[in-house]
């Protein structure tokens, strides 16, 4: 599914759906939790993931960041220099 709109909702639209959207933004838009939360609040001012969901989102963000750093270190392909000084 590309460039399609998706409705994410829960009973009140405050905590559970907000948490799912934040996790998506962190994972697929490479946003920090803080940046994702600011973005979400601009569009859904009553968004307020509960404390336990926020703890899990913090852990998720750290896990993805650590995994990304490991992937970069383990990648045998290094960037190629594209500019040269003459």
TrEMBL record:
Signal peptide: none annotated. Pfam families: DSPc. Its EC number is 3.1.3.48. It comes from the Eukaryota. The keyword Hydrolase applies. Keywords: Hydrolase, Protein phosphatase. PANTHER family: DUAL SPECIFICITY PROTEIN PHOSPHATASE, DUAL SPECIFICITY PROTEIN PHOSPHATASE MPK3. This is protein-tyrosine-phosphatase. It comes from Adineta steineri. The lineage of its organism: Eukaryota, Metazoa, Spiralia, Gnathifera, Rotifera.
């Amino acid at each position: 599914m590309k460039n399609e709109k998706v409705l994410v909702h829960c009973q009140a639209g405050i905590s559970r759906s907000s948490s799912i959207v934040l996790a998506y933004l962190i994972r697929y838009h490479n946003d920090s939790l803080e940046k994702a939360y600011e973005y979400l609040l601009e569009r859904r001012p009553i968004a307020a993931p509960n404390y336990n969901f926020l703890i899990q989102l913090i852990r998720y963000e750290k896990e993805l960041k650590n995994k990304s750093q490991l992937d970069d270190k383990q990648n045998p392909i290094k960037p190629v220099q594209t500019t040269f000084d003459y």
